[in-house]
Fold this sequence. Notes:
Elements: E1 3-8, E2 13-18, H1 26-30, E3 33-34, E4 37-38, E5 42-46, H2 50-57, E6 62-65, H3 69-72, H4 84-96, E7 102-106, H5 116-130, E8 134-136, H6 144-151, E9 157-162, H7 168-171, H8 181-197, E10 201-205, H9 209-218, E11 223-226, E12 234-237, H10 239-242, H11 259-275
Parallel strand pairs: 5-6, 5-12, 6-7, 7-8, 8-9, 9-10, 10-11, 11-12
Antiparallel strand pairs: 1-2, 3-4
Helix pairs in contact: 2-4, 4-5, 5-6, 6-8, 8-9
Amino acid sequence: MSTTFQIDTSTSRATPTPAPMKRLTVPKLRARKTDGVTGEPLVMLTAYTARQAQLLDAHCDLLLVGDSLGQVIYGLPSTIPVTMEMMANHAAAVVRGSYHAVVVVDMPFGSYERSPEQAFDSAAQLLKQSGAAAVKLEGGEAMAETVAFLSQRGIPVMGHVGLTPQAVNVLGGYAARGRSDAEAEKIVGDARALDAAGAFAIVIEGVVESIAIAATEAVSAPTIGIGASARCDGQVLVTEDMLGMFERVPRFVKKYEDIAALIERTAATYAEEVRNRSFPGEDQTYQPKS
């Protein structure tokens, strides 16, 4: 039986434990879409830590170690300052905490745009240091040559079109894309170019729904929507947004829980018990043996 290193929650030590099932592969996920139809939509969520990966893994086809960690984990104003070291370290943690989902790691801004050769060096470094199965990069037709270069050299690539957060300074913000005919045509064209270049899947973010549908129908690779359409071949959300960790989230986020309120209530209860000396109690302290 294959094994994987996971955090043993009873001891907090990394120990090899039997994997209950084989990990999904990029070809198997790519094959979900046949003749333009995906029977079972792909489920993807972001993950940044081993424990988070453990909790999400059984329910997801893909775990994305997104450069959104810049804002979610580090409190940065955008994804632009995220480094290769950040991405490699968090991706390695997610790989250690998972056994089922395909782990995809974002290539940070500045690590791949200069040339296909630069992109290969960066992608190879990320995959070697983390054990992730694939990389994701932003950009459409302009990145098609790079996607082909990586794919032909054994590095699976997930594309990303529409609203591309790394280009926020060029786009002028995070507004939905595809409202003009020219922009809509470009988004579909970008998706086609990435598909032809060999991307195994394509994220479509923050676009008018009809354009997301058109792009999905135009490509053979599965599309994964975020602020796009339920008719995409899969969906992704930032896990912390979905769980309600932040008060302000993009319009396309559905808050399934209010974890922030739970944490605040729990912290307040703990603080009260510390101040009135009811914690720690007998169950949390060590007494002499009788």
